[in-house]
Amino acid sequence: MPVLRAMQGDITTLGVDVIVNAAHTSLLGGGGIDGAIHRAAGPQLLEFCRTLGGCETGQAKTTPGFDLPARWVVHTVGPVWGGGAAGEPEQLASCYRESLARADEVEAATIVFPAISTGIYGYPADLAAAIAVDAVRSATTSVDEIILICFDEATLSIYRDLLA
Ligand code: AR6
Fold first, then answer.
1. Ligand 1 centroid to 121 CA: how many Å?
2. Where are the domains of the chain?
């Protein structure tokens, strides 16, 4: 069973095996965490992503970290929140499971997840956090440590309550 913990901070600064990007289906960059990761990784990341043919919602694809301190980036595409009846919970859980599967493929010891879909894609932070914790707790994986990172204090406190 991996250790599971939550922290506040900027995912682009972490020298871990895998950071997860909350990407767009095109995998060609965007705003939010996606923009921050592409800026920090440098232009080679976009070049590499162009070869991947995009990514479906709920799926995940791996690239090197290039200029990032992280070795690998797993790009996953969360659902756009539309009220929750259009399969969003299942798609969001799939993002966490598929990203862990990609991390296992590169034999990662540590993976860091952002709060996927809770920014531009509008997923309510409390509902998304419950799905994130449930999905990683119930996944079969060989990683040693799973870190849930967030930018804001409010999300951190939601994670802390769920992990207590
Ligand atoms: N480190 C940690 N967390 C961050 C960082 C960071 N550097 N930057 C943002 N967050 P979002 P989404 C948090 O909007 O909702 C892009 O245009 C942020 O506070 O980045 O999945 C893509 O191309 C929020 O809680 O991702 C897609 O089109 C969480 O990360 C779309 O946005 C996710 O916010 C994806 O939207």
1. 8
2. 3-163
Is the separation of the CB atoms in 58 and 77 below 8 Å? yes
Q: Which two tokens stand for residue 35?
A: 């923009």
Answer whether 121 contacts ligand 1 (Cβ < 6 A): yes
With a 6 Å cutoff on the Cβ, whether 91 touches ligand 1 is no
90 neighbors 58 (Cβ within 8 angstroms):
yes
The structure's pTM equals 0.98
pLDDT string in tens for the chain (164-residue length): 899 999 999 999 999 999 999 999 999 999 999 999 999 999 999 999 999 999 999 999 999 999 999 999 999 999 999 999 999 999 999 999 999 999 999 999 999 999 999 999 999 999 999 999 999 999 999 999 999 999 999 999 999 999 99
Query: Known catalytic residue: 34?
Result: yes
Task: Supply the CATH classification number for the domain 3-163.
Answer: 3.40.220.10
Give residue 104 CA to ligand 1 midpoint distance, Å. 23
